[in-house]
Predict the structure.
Amino acid sequence: MSDVRPGDPAPEDPAGDCRSCGALVVVGQRYCLDCGGLIGARRLDPLETFRARAAAAQPAPVPVAASPPRAVPFAAAATAVLVAGVSGMLVAGGDGGARAAVIARAPAAAPAAPVVVKAPKKPTADADAGDDADAPAAEPEAETAAVEETPLEETPVEDVPVEDTPVDDAPAEEEPEEELPEDEPITPHVWMLALDGPQAQEAVKRIADQGVTLTGVKPLGPETGQNVTGLMTGVRPVPAGATPPEVTPSLPEILTTAGASWRAYVDVQPSKGAALPGACSVPPVGDAAAAALAGRLPFGRIAGLAEGDACGDGIKSLETLGNDVSAGDSIPELSYAALGGCAPPERTAVALPDQVSDAVTAITSSTEYQENGLIVVTAVGAADPCPATPPDPAVPAPVPPLAADGTLAPTPTVVLRSDTKPGSELDTPADLLALTRLAASTLSVDPPGAAGADDVPALELPAADG
């Protein structure tokens, strides 16, 4: 078989001389018939072809258990290349002498480390298309098959037993839930609003629908001072010439001993500064405002409070009441508010009904009232609580209204508590000491003075669900 293709000159046409020996060669001749030398450029590199086919036939990665690739020594691969060259020469028309010449020119293969070459599978069409030689390119593959193969010894892979991890089928223990600390119960709180002045009755009526109206509670006396003192001490007024009762601790003193606190809020007290004259001491002569304040507040008449700093430290402005209720943590257990529609010089006066309505709204909005609170609103006097000048001795002081039997008529009183029925009434006959007893029982302390006596009834307020 020759390399002549259609359109090439006839094989017998001379093409030139051999570059190695000068012998005459013809067109299409690949090797010299005299010396066996290559005519023209090499069209096919057997080793490169062999490597390309081996790479194309490279199998996909297989598991470890697959058979290892065959090992072909380098010498065997070189021998295959030489055999391919001789075969090409014979096809071109050479004789036995030419074949011997070619073999004599081939250098002996040097010993080398074996190269692992994987046996190619069936030649692909792409590999054949890139080869300019037709038959000679396929013959080396047949010769290669005749080369003795030295298989590699397979290294046995030991099966390492995998120890099974024991599975605990027992259900996992649930971690105990963290117990949150329970909220401490809110201590009871009592607000007592003592109203005096001509508008006291109107102020009480304005909030009557929010609480229980007490229709049978009478004042202790005609004067404001007698009523407010009895509310805090539990002592009724002593008639002229009678022996005064034994002095006992007042409600503020009892609370202080029990570790609780009290505070008095006064509408005329400035926001800053010490307690006004008359609040905790005898008012100066001729000072109408101080005299009126001394008649409205009972704390200057209580020896245990007036002798020390307790009275002065407990007197606060009406604005402080709103601040304490809003803050929550600064609310004392007992709050006493003296309201009469008065105001300090730096503030505009507010009518008594508005004072009471604003104070009740602020208190009832607090958690302390909603959880465990009590509000007592009562009228304690009819005299002007904030006169600008001393009263004229020729003008009689106003007195509370009288009942049909000539005794003092019941004083307007409303009690508010979250568990009572709003807008209801209670007609239990009593005086102001019943309010003192109610406040003390709410605060869980003993009533002061005579407020715990048998003649002072315990008020049973109508329940909200009754």
